Amino acid sequence: MKSLSVFLLFIVACRAFYAGFDRDKCLGSYAHYKVVGFENTRAEMVQRGNGLKDCSKCLRDEGELSDVFLNSYLFYRDTDRFDLDYFEDEANEKLTPAFCSKNGKAGILERYQTVSSKMQIARAKAEWKKETNLTAANNQAALALTSSQAKEKARLNTLLSALLRCDNLSCREKQMIYPSVESLIKFPTKLAHEKGQLSNKVQTVYSKAVVCREEDGKKKCYHYEPGIQHIMDTSRNYDELLWVWKGWRDAIGPKVRNDWICEQVIKNIGAKRNGYKDVGESWRSVYYENNFEDKMDKLWEQIKPFYQQFHAYVRHKLHGIYGDKVDLKGPIPAHLLGNIWAMNWHGLYNDVKPFKNIDDFDVTGGLKKKKVSVMKMFHLADEFYQSMGLPAMPQSFWKKSMFVRPKDGHPVVCYASAHNLGHSDVRVKMCAEVTGEYFYTAHHEMGHCQYFLAYNKHQPFCLQGGANPGFHEAIGDTAALSVINPNHLTKLGILDKQDEKSASFKKRELNFLMSRALEKLTLFPFALSLSKWRWDFFADRIKDGKINKHWWDRKLQYQGIAPPIKRTEKDFDPAAKYHVSANVPYIRYFFSHVLQFQFYETLCEAADHKGPLYNCDFGGSKNAGRLFKRMLEEGKSKHWKDILKEMTGSCELSTLPVLKYFKPLHEWLIEENKRLGLHVGW
Predict the structure, then answer these.
(1) CB under 8 Å to 123, separation ≥6 — which residues?
(2) DSSP state of 7
């Protein structure tokens, strides 16, 4: 490919831009690596993005999405196989009319999808083996597999890229081809290998992190789950919370800081190779939305007044426990919020619930009272989805999933996740216990698996995936909103039935909404602060190079929290969050927390729910199930806005269902904060 321009990668102005980070040591002979043809590659990438937008009903004033390829995957499987080398030769020479014929396009797509699918399944199996048994051998095996597939992956990419020259692509074909194509500019093998090694090193440090102290004359070490999580949930000793908060960050941040930075520098090179300004832009691009960052900010501004009232009330309650260590007009110390990351504040429920003399909304207690086991929690989740007409989890799910920490204690990645190993092989991985939080998580992760099963069955490989990453996260949470409410939990016998006409009923409902806000509302500013910080890092917007300080600046701006002790650039607090260490984009969680309430309201209407939104249980509704299932089966076959409109009737994300759900609590907080004379803000 001839270069129209030469893009000189600018990473750091000088070697010590980030304290202790050496660019030359990180990149070696590639310290001044040049990405050739950046402007041309970027123009092609933008053109493809616009092509997909043009196919969206929501993004066009008129016209229909093409349905030409709705059933064409069956044609792929029946058509004659084409020789890969033949098409590679054709792709590198003058394009012939036959190349873009119906059979030509079908042949290329068939070959690409067949081979790519097999390679992805192999990688998924290697990743599963690595995460469920963290050994050096499994880490290296996963790396070796990725490396061994690189040549074939490049050949397949060349093959698929040939179709970009066809001017007769249908919208269905564009949806299959455009997001899958990568730049033909070769990425240095050495850098790709180094990125993989760095990623493994960082994630291994995170997964093996423990916090230790002496107890009864013996050294006692705590993993995050369940040990550290239990301390954060239950302890109200300021110094003990500080010990575990600092210890967790000391166990990870300083050990991975330079490796993490180096990995991101290499990832930024890869992003530029594909025509993106940086990794952050490439992550946002999957939403195919102009001004995406600004639109997330606008959604937050609509939720922010509710959060500020909530923050003021929680701060007041914490002041009652810790005294002047909590400033009634300032940010809340980050270690006092019942969660090692200050992401989910549900551990504070008993401290902040509005009415302490009312029977508790205690899901954990109810589960244990009924002697519900970990496995029973998952079976209850399966029964919920089946009650709507969705399929049961396959037998392989029950045989191959990791539900609890292994009894022999070998190291694993405990962070809950769902895995798609192709066809009907779907699994979950977590170290669950019998708690309300894990009961929720069981439904959430099984929601991912329902999505996998639906699009694996109904879509070709290129269209197997969530409509966007936020959709995938919203699926299980939508179901969990229906499950974790007084109506459904009473049906299960986990909560006792209450007299809706009693004086205590409304108070109990406010307690319930507070419990939900401690989990749901707190995620919005957490997700946005994390995403903004990482986008700033990728885009080189942290001009003074103080990345840890900037992390806390963003936390203060959005969450109203601050570190309890002085932090320096020798610390690296972002790495204490799994998604940062593991390079998982996080704005999907902000997006999904808006989206799930839209889905929930829609399914409640389909189930003909009457009464407050927060008490809707659409379980057992086949009408809601049909609507839900149709959306799951779409995969990523259309622009997410079109799929959203088919589901909800609207093309746009809306915070109105969130605010409607929490309206009684929001109104109560405003009045209560006025009564107490509390300062709102920080």
Answers:
(1) 142, 145, 146, 149
(2) E
In this prediction the pTM is 0.87
What does the alpha-carbon distance between residue 515 and residue 240 come to, in Å, rounded to a whole number? 24
* CA–CA gap between residue 677 and residue 671 (Å, rounded): 10
List residues bridging with 7 in a β-sheet. 35
DSSP output for 361-381:
--HHHHHHHTT--HHHHHHHH
User: DSSP class of residue 420?
Assistant: E
Give the pLDDT band of residue 86 (cuts 50, 70, 90). Answer: very low
Q: Which of 673, 644, 253 is nearest to 478 (CA)?
A: 644
Q: Chain-centre distance of CA 50, in angstroms?
A: 25
Please compute, for residue 576, the number of CA atoms within 13 A of its CA located in the half-sphere on the CB side: 25
φ/ψ of residue 660, rounded to 5:
-65, -45
Count Cα atoms within 13 angstroms, Cβ side, for 650.
11
Residue 602 tokens, joined? 């829609």
Total residues found in the chain within this entry: 682
CB neighbours of 189 closer than 8 A, spacing ≥ 6? 150
CB of 561 closer than 8 Å to CB of 331: yes
pLDDT tens, position by position, 217-228: 889 988 887 889
Distance linking the first and last C-alpha atoms of the chain: 55
Which pairs count as long-range contacts for 546-552, CB under 8 Å and 24+ apart, including other chains?
A: 547/18, 547/261, 547/572, 547/574, 548/572, 548/573, 548/574
Q: Pick the more confident residue, 544 or 96.
A: 544
Task: Decide the pairing of beta strands 6-8 and 34-36.
Answer: antiparallel
